[in-house]
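Predict the holo structure. Ligand: flavin-adenine dinucleotide.
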Amino acid sequence: MERSKKLKAGKEPQREIVFDLAVIGCGPSGALAASLAAEAGLSTVILESKKHPRPKICGGFLSTRSIDLLPEDLSLSSLQAGTVYQVSLIKKRNFYYIDNSKKPLGLVIKREKFDQLMAEYACSKGAILREKEALKAINITGENETRAKSYYLLESEKTEGKTLKVRYLMGADGAMGNTALLAGLRKPGEGIKGWGLSQIVKTKPKVADTSTAKFYPLPFLGGMGWSFSGPDWTNHGVGGLFGRNMLLKAKRKLFHNQYDHSTPLFWPLPFLGPLQKPATGNLLLIGDAAGLVDPFSGEGLYNSFKSAILAVQAVIAAEKNGIEASNTYNYLFRKNFREKFAASLCGALLLHTRSIVKPSSLAHQIADLMENKLWFNYNIDLSSIHENN
Ligand SMILES: Cc1cc2nc3c(=O)[nH]c(=O)nc-3n(C[C@H](O)[C@H](O)[C@H](O)COP(=O)(O)OP(=O)(O)OC[C@H]3O[C@@H](n4cnc5c(N)ncnc54)[C@H](O)[C@@H]3O)c2cc1C
């Protein structure tokens, strides 16, 4: 990181608040990382620019493979989610149906509730959550010793006169966050190549089919539409590579008969590739901030959790061995995400193209993805951490 650009000359901090780790952003990736770090004994603070419960644009599908990465004592049952057993692929008037009734494929959640639960979980493990506090600047000190011993001095709207001083920093602030930009790990606009929009429509209790996740292939837009239902709501939307106007048109065409007065909301989908370099010194990027949305499905939660787990492993390894956390994290990130991305992107293009002539195959592949059985998928490899140290 360029130290000189960020330091403000002559401004001596009056008071320092010291933590081992600061996590920027309390979405799913940040909350999971903070909970694991706090549980491992690191004093951990989370800065979140909003206040939970806050709205989040998302389809709200939490796949079984994502759930498998979450801690067992996280109380998902409190979410009143829909449990999905079937995938249905709808193309014009044709339905292709996969029934997995023996094992759930995932849950349909409301993100504001899920993210709040995750934030509360992180606090229950000892992390300190500071809400309505956006990160503004990062300074670095102690560089003339070793980078492993340097500190990050953080400025936010609320740190006037006080400095938040941390040894490790994680950017979990999503696709539009500024940690990556402040750290020089991403240039403005870089890495954001797709868009998604979603809308939640209230339905009468028990009217919607909560057990079926419906997908609508949009091969020419490089994406998909979806309709997922909870006990008294339906989330429908579209995501893809193309511009927002085309996606909006596709959404109107797919869901024209749905009762829906709210304005659909867009959010970037960083699904054209994990960052070249997601970490420097002891500063690590995770989740959407590191460009980890799956190119086949637009699913982001699985890779958010996976990167959070790997980043905490890297910090623990740094603590043990006196090395920089980026040494381990950049290696694990390359092995787990970058080296597998080309296969994943080719697989995604192949399946979306094939869906034009054989839509039923897409339904099978989506169900496989939810259970982490898709042939070209990333596979978490936590054992590789031992090779590296
Ligand atoms: C339309 C759409 C539908 C999707 N559907 C699905 C789906 O069904 N299933 C799925 O698995 N994935 C889905 N995704 C992807 C998923 O939403 C993301 O991958 C996931 O939210 C990433 O989590 P995160 O914690 O990395 O970032 P986020 O969830 O974006 O959280 C980032 C947090 O950082 C905070 N923040 C931002 N800037 C700052 C700052 N400067 N200081 C402090 N805090 C800050 C934000 O307020 C936010 O709380 C979808 C995405 C879109 C756009």
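The chain has a mean pLDDT of 86. The domain at 3-388 is CATH 3.50.50.60 (FAD/NAD(P)-binding domain).
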